Amino acid sequence: MGRPPEGGYRLPALEQIAAASAGRGARYARSAVRLFVAVIPPPALAQRLAEAAASIAPPELRVIPAENLHVTIHFLGDVQPDAVAALEADLAAAAARHTPTELALDAIAPGPRRRPRMLWATANATSGYTAIVSDAAAAAAPHAPSARPARPGTPHLTLARLRGRAALRRWPDPQPLDDAAVPLAELALVHSTPGRDGATYTELATLPLGGQSAGRR
Asked: CA-to-CA distance for 184 and 14, rounded, in angstroms?
């Protein structure tokens, strides 16, 4: 996942993304930008999760690259480019009100439970996590009319997805995870560009919790 320039969000980065999107062809060109708020795991943890998923995923599943792994805090959908600066400012203010914490991962398991389509690294929602999700959704609401409802109760990282129309009769058994926690020290405002080979993610801004970021290690 591409990182934002030093100092956070910059409008030229968004303009470059729009130009690149237009260059992909009419099918994938967009005037609005598709955004979501996420927590990005440390690179070492992301690599560990990607390798664990690859070791148990059957051929019907496409394993997500380590650099694309994230916990979705709030999916914003299509946002007009001229609304992004105000969106980022309101999200940054919301993030600054929360104390950094962590999200303990407990297993790699099929998800969603009723009709699995993916492999998830799952976690239980804590009160801190739930508050962060709710505040991010409230902060984004004036700027992202297409946003999905907030979903604080199902934190996870998607590690693999079914390929196309593939069907899988037997999913891998859940695998417990030990000593695996995603730090909730900062949020990321992420741009998603759809493409023939899957989405490309680019971070537009980092939004520290508590007003100070410890970074990712």
From this structure: 25
- Within 13 Å of residue 180, how many CA atoms lie on the same side as its CB? 24
CATH number of 11-211: 3.90.1140.10
pTM, two decimal places = 0.86
Q: Which DSSP string do the residues of 47-73 spell out, in sequence order? A: HHHHHHHHHH--TTEEEPPGGG--EEE
DSSP state letter for 109: E
pLDDT(12) > 80 = no
Residue type, 162: L
Q: In Å, how far from its chain's centre is CA 56?
A: 22
The CA distance from 184 to 140, in Å, is 19
- pLDDT tens, residue by residue, 91-129: 999 999 999 999 999 999 999 988 999 999 999 999 999
Of 203, 204, 201, 194, which is closest to residue 21 (Cα–Cα)? 194
* Domain spans, the chain: 11-211
The span from the CA of 177 to the CA of 53, in Å, is: 12
pLDDT tens digits along 20-50: 545 544 444 458 999 999 999 999 999 999 9
CB-CB contact of 14 with 202 (8 Å): no
> At 74, which helix (H) or strand (E)?
strand 71-79
Strand partners of residue 207: 187
